[in-house]
Amino acid sequence: MIGLSAQGLRVVFDGFVAVDDVSFEVAPGASFGIVGESGSGKSTVLRALCGLASTTGQVRLTGREGLPAPGSKAFRRQVQMVFQDPYGSLHPRQTVDRILAEPLAIHGIADAEARIERALDEVGLGAGFRFRYPHQLSGGQRQRIAVARALILEPQVLLLDEPTSALDASVQAEVLNLLEALRQRRGLSFVMVSHDLAVVTHLCQRLMVMRGGRAVEMLAAADLAAHRVQADYTKALMQAAAGFVRAAA
Question: What does the pLDDT look like over 134-181, one tens digit per residue?
């Protein structure tokens, strides 16, 4: 199993500091969550981890010797990302078969036929979906295809950017349970971004709270569930997650 280390991540867009000196460790086979309000920088952290955003910090894989360096093709094969919008992340004019075959072709991997069938089986769809287009799938099915595309290269680290926020509530639990089953079966390490504290508490063992591009607090998911938090901002997030309660007239 492989873990991930991020040290001193700093991302700047046109003079705006989106992420400022963020550091954390994800143990091999562990699940790590990043929470915060919109604009806190949590999704930018994921993009920095996989090379979609330039950072002056250090990102490296951990767990054994001889692991690929960040930015290399081998690193990108080990670290894959599932995006928030399952429709926007899939090419509308490509079939599922073509979508899944493309990363295999980019990385020069043979036995595409067997890998595509295995990936579809793993996400609970099957070969009957191979030649459908994204518009012919439900939101939950599209996100399963996005997960299959990420897994087809057999990575060790999966970056999840709000993977269920665009789905109906009835489908969210199915996708979350699928992700957890895949993590345990494959020994994957997860880094998940979410604004939903309940989702992170369910799926992640440890988490980082972000605000204004900086880390506010690190804590175990069990501590969050038991309301054992220190930062006032984390307490405010928990109160907001509890929902609005109308005062008695």
Answer: 999 988 899 899 999 999 999 999 999 988 877 787 788 888 888 999
Q: What is the DSSP letter of 18?
A: E
Q: Which residue has the tokens 């604004």?
A: 195
Q: Considering only CA atoms, which of 180, 228, 230 is closest in space to residue 200?
A: 180
User: How many Å apart are CA 205 and CA 207, to the nearest integer?
Assistant: 7
CA separation for the pair 164, 159 (Å, rounded): 13
CB 211 within 8 A of CB 40: yes
Supply the pTM of this predicted model. Answer: 0.90
Classify residue 193: in a domain, yes or no.
yes
CATH number for the domain including 234? 3.40.50.300
Number of domains observed in the structure of the chain: 1
Q: Determine contact, residues 219/207, Cβ cutoff 8 Å.
A: yes
